[in-house]
Amino acid sequence: MRITLIQPAIGHRMGESYIRSWQMEPLPIATLTGLTPAAVDLRFYDDRMESIAYDEPTDAVAIPVETYTAHRAYQIASEYRRRGVPVILGGFHPTLVPQEAARFAEAIVLGEAESIWPQVVDDLRHGTLQSRYRGERGALAGAAVDRRLFLGKRYLPIGLVETGRGCRFPCEFCAIQTFFERSYRSRPAADVVRELQGLKGQKKLFFFVDDNFAGDIKAGRELLPQIEALKLRWITQMSINAAHDEAFVAQLARSGCRGVLIGFESLNEENLKLMNKRFNTMKGGYVGALQNLRRHGISVYGTFVFGYEHDTANSFHEAVEFAIEQDMYVAAFNHLTPFPGTPLYARLQSEGRLRFDAWWLDPRYRYNDLPFNPVNMAPQEVTKGCVQARRSFYAWPSILKRSLRNRSDFFMWRNFFPINALHRGEVALRNGYPLGDEAFHAALIEVA
């Protein structure tokens, strides 16, 4: 039996290559590969960097779907279903909007794949594929990750590894809290170390893709000494509350942590209250936490969102000035996105402020458009403000100024200029990017 795995792109713009910084290894594909019996012949196509061989014989197609890739995933599913090939959709988006995803696939997988994917494969083998499966949330022990399908593909040279899953914080806009029901689970340290040992000679930098590496600080403290022994260089995502714990920050640095992605989101405390993100202001707020990170040589990738009730035209400038003043390694300035299934989406829908019934499927929607009506600005003002903020932050004077305080690690400093130049070059490329392939003109095929 042959199964084809597909990583969908956000979309494709006519006559342009796909955006380079969006091309990291797709860890869900490696997870599915590790869960699939060896007797099954697997094929893999990454829609972000290669053409899909739709006419190649296969018994089924499986596609992990996020909200931003949903439209393109449904296009790909339609191409296969037009050829009589059954399609299985899973991941965040089908779990959040199962009725929608079920319209475009023979089967959908809700929740996490580890507990249910072997049954899906067995049902395929016996011709008894069900229309809906739900994975149970269990321990992460023994989770196999198999990257063999990535060989020969030109991904960014970063090793993606998961050490934990989920987040306990109730941020209004976050789909992670909905998907994992505000839970956090750590992988056994031995499993993480074993995976890192297998990749150590292949990657110079690792990215722990945890939704919040500090989701369980006690477990983190136990894992970090074992990572330290491997002498790796790594980056991760974590909530800012952990950066106030200087002992933990020092331990991060000793273990090889060279950068953290932190969601600052807003400099306005009233906005943070609306987000249910009051913890961002604890223990003196951002500045003290940033000082701790800088003191231990850990660079910061800061993210900011715009469009909340207390944002004004000046909010963009304030965020950029703050990010430059704090010498952030890189930063993202994005509009607020109401993902389906989140408290934010439900609130904006109840207030009649959504501009599209389902923005991720609406042909009028483009990347960087604001899918709702904010309070103090027009949607177009928010889009324009985000683009200008990126241009300002990635202007050469800003890059040069910030480089001076990002020299604690030679590897990170050496890559500071190429990474910032890459983001600088993509400011215009991202704006107005289509969700779905602009060259796809056929109708989406729905389940009868």
CATH architecture of the largest domain: Alpha-Beta Barrel
State the strand order across the main sheet: 3-1-4-5-6-7
Low-confidence stretches: none
Helix content: 25-40%
Let me know the average pLDDT.
93
CATH evolutionary superfamily of the largest domain = Aldolase class I
The value of Rg in angstroms is 22 Å
The overall strand count is 16
Distance linking N and C termini? 26 Å
- CATH fold description of the largest domain: TIM Barrel
Description:
There is one protein chain. By secondary structure, the chain is an alpha/beta fold. It has two domains: 2-140, Rossmann fold; 158-408, TIM Barrel. The protein contains 16 helices and 16 strands. The strands form four sheets. A six-stranded parallel beta sheet has the order 3-1-4-5-6-7, sandwiched between helices. The chain has a six-stranded parallel beta sheet with strand order 8-11-12-13-14-15. Strands 2-16 form a two-stranded parallel sheet. Helix 8 packs parallel to helix 9 and helix 12 packs parallel to helix 14. The longest helix is centred in the last third of the chain and has 21 residues, at 410-430. The two termini are 26 Å apart. The model has no long low-confidence stretch (mean pLDDT 93).
Summary keywords:
single chain, 448 residues, alpha/beta, Rossmann fold, TIM Barrel, six-stranded parallel beta sheet, 35% helix, globular
Q: Layout of SSEs?
A:
Layout lengths: L1 E6 L3 E2 L14 H9 L5 E6 L13 E5 L5 H13 L4 E4 L1 H5 L1 H4 L5 E4 L6 H9 L6 E3 L24 E3 L2 E3 L8 H5 L4 E3 L2 H11 L6 E3 L8 H12 L5 E4 L8 H9 L2 E9 L3 H6 L11 H10 L3 E8 L7 H12 L4 E6 L7 H8 L28 H15 L2 H8 L6 H21 L5 E2 L11
Parallel strand pairs: 1-3, 1-4, 2-16, 4-5, 5-6, 6-7, 8-11, 11-12, 12-13, 13-14, 14-15
Antiparallel strand pairs: 9-10
